[in-house]
Amino acid sequence: MAIDRSVVEKAAGLARIALTSEEIERFTGQLSVVLRAVERLKDVDTTEVSPTASVLPVANVMREDEIRPGLSVDQAFANTGRGGRDGDFFRVQHVLEERP
Fold first, then answer.
1. Burial class (CB in 10 A: 0-12, 13-18, 19+), 8
2. What is the Cα 77 distance to its own chain's centre?
């Protein structure tokens, strides 16, 4: 798969990143090199390799559950500032974003 200018512009738009024309050209070349390298991985024989989620050993660090007291209501609201509390609820600004 070849990367062209329109693909870089689309990716930058989705990431909401403003790129100059020079940056678009540079990234087009760089991303093409990366894709060619990834394409070469198709030639690697992985039939003897078992699927894995991580190449590093994974171990869970567990602790005993113990009951501890939580925050009081006043402690929970201590850093909300003026207008951040409505009774026993947090008051937050209503945010809606239109999607194109």
1. buried
2. 29
Q: Are 24 and 8 in contact (CB under 8 A)?
A: yes
The overall average pLDDT reported for the chain is 88
Q: Are strands 89-90 and 85-86 parallel, antiparallel or unpaired?
A: antiparallel
Helices 5-14/21-40 angle, 10° precision: 100
What's the pLDDT at 99?
64
| Residue 91, pLDDT score | 86
Contact 43, 14 (CB under 8 A): no
CA distances in angstroms from 40 to 35, 46, 50, 70, listed in the order given: 9, 13, 20, 54
Write the pLDDT tens digit of every residue in 61-93: 888 889 999 999 889 988 887 778 888 888 887
* 25 token code pair: 């050209």
